[in-house]
Amino acid sequence: MKSIFSEEGRLQRFLEVEAALAFAHAAVGNIPKEDADNIANAVASKSVNVERVKEIEKEIRHDLMSVVKALAEQSGDSGRYVHLGATSYDIEDTAFALQFKDVIKILRDALMGLRRALAGLSDKHKNTVMLGRTHGQAAVPITFGLKMAVYTLEVHRHLERLDEIEKRICVGKMSGATGTGAGFGPEALEIQKIVMDNLGLGYEEASSQIVGRDRYAEFITYCANVAASLEKFATEVRNLQRTEIGEVAEAFDVEKFVGSSTMAQKKNPETSENICGLARIIRGFVHPTYENIPLWHERDLTNSSSERFIIPHVCILTDDILAKMTDVFSNLVVNEERMMDNIKNTKGQVMSESVMMTLTKKGMDRQEAHEMIRKLAMTAQEKNVELKEVLLGSMEIARLLTTDELDKALDPLNYIGSSVQIVDNVLRKVRD
After folding, report:
1. What's the rounded Cα separation, in Å, for the pair 23 and 25?
2. pLDDT (tens digit, 9 = 90+) per residue, 101-158?
3. Which residues does the annotation mark as catalytic?
4. Reduced to 3 states, what is the DSSP secondary structure of residue 36?
5. Residue 199: which of 43, 32, 75, 62 has the closest Cα?
6. Which of 157, 329, 332, 427 could bridge to 117 as Cys pair (CB 3.0-4.6 Å)?
């Protein structure tokens, strides 16, 4: 990902666009094919380098024109046709589109890798019972596989979104200083189409001097959405690794790793914490991206400086935290025994709903059953005893439920609903 946004990577894409432009001019008869070939050969030879471009820029103080001059130098007499009819942002925005095209390939692969890791955990632990938690409190049992299936499906949606936005993001332009294409002559629209077809890009059908920045805002917002999901996943790992919960943990090499410079016992979820911090940086770039949409008239230069920071940073950081999150889930330590211990430590409280639903099946009014179980659960909490102990002392429950029926209702393994089927459905969907 970094190579896409390196000086060399950016320069090479500028040159590829210039070569495609020369090819298009030749295709419509504006310049001799031999000259277009000479320009293309100069680009392919990679004889135009960053050092020479910087040398020229130091003198003329224009970044894109420095590229044009450097390419013209290497193209011999054909250099007079380099950049014919174009404005800087015909080249720059089309180069951005080439970068986005390569970025999207990397992000797609990274998301697929994360989805694979999550799907693997979901399949492996679809029967692993654990506490569900709402408001930070013990709720009713779920399976760890179900939790991972929720995450799997969220990543799957991000892949679908990526496919949907690609056609709107990988778009260049070749329409001149104010979008009229006047500099390209009567074949301007055909030149634009040939250039973009050559580069495998869409094109802005009506543009100002630049590609519409609503496109860029959509992409950066997409990355922010992905980052928010990753922070959500990482936060869950951090919470489940808390000492008092201890149900999962990041992999930790006890022979080598150091958790703290002073507290020798520590095993910190540092990668997940890193993901959370960097996700916030990514989302922080959303606001200036939207500020780049309202430019003056056919354009001004206020978007340019900020985009040089926003786009590379967002793409590189998104790729980085995707890789880290995949590593966390690929090597996650899952403590199934602790999960069951934490359920048992609630002294049966988390099975209150199960008992209530069992009573309704026996004919008790749902509201009546809820109020009765609520009071008995509060009593059990106050006395710090097992819920079963208090339930057995209720004449109403004894009248409706046998001891075996009550034991069945209090068994968390019997109250995971359709968790396994949901996991199987999700896995089938993502594998299809």
Report:
1. 5
2. 999 999 999 999 999 999 999 999 999 999 999 999 999 999 999 999 999 999 999 9
3. 135, 260
4. helix
5. 43
6. 329
Strands 129-134 and 248-249: unpaired
Architecture of the domain spanning 346-417: Orthogonal Bundle (1.10)
Burial 89-98 (b: 16+ CB within 10 A, else e): bbbbbbbbbb
Q: Phi first, then psi: give them for residue 287, nearest 5 degrees.
A: -60, -50
Query: Which residues on adjacent β-strands are paired with residue 333?
Result: 249
Measured CA to CA, the distance from residue 299 to residue 316 in angstroms comes to 27
Query: Does the structure show a pLDDT above 90 at 260?
Result: no
Beta carbons of 119 and 126 less than 8 angstroms apart: no
Domain positions in the chain: 2-84, 89-341, 346-417
**Fold for domain 89-341?**
Fumarase C; Chain A, domain 2 (1.20.200)
Q: What's the average model confidence in pLDDT over 13-25?
A: 98
Residues 6+ apart with CB under 8 A from 313: 281, 282, 285
Taking CA atoms, 54 is separated from 92, 301, 412, in Å, by: 16, 21, 68
Tokens of 85: 């009819």
Q: What are phi and psi of 130, to 5 degrees?
A: -150, 170
- Neighbouring CB atoms inside 10 A of 416's CB total 21
Q: What is the identity of the amino acid at 67?
A: V
pLDDT-based confidence at residue 267 (cuts at 50, 70, 90):
confident
Instruction: Give Rg (Cα) of the chain.
Output: 30
Pick the CATH number of 2-84 from 3.50.30.50, 1.10.275.10, 3.10.450.50, 3.50.50.60: 1.10.275.10
Structural element, H or E, at residue 333: strand 333-334
Distance of CA 28 to the CA centre of its chain: 42
Tell whether the torsion through CA atoms of 399, 404, 410 and 414 is positive or negative.
Answer: negative
Separation of alpha carbons 90 and 82, rounded Å: 13
Has residue 182 got a pLDDT over 80? Answer: yes
Residue 57, H or E segment: helix 50-60
Share of the chain above pLDDT 70, in %: 97
Secondary structure of 133-181 in the HEC alphabet? EECCEEEEEEEHHHHHHHHHHHHHHHHHHHHHHHHHHCEECCCCCCCCC
- Decide if 90 contacts 96 (C-beta within 8 A): no
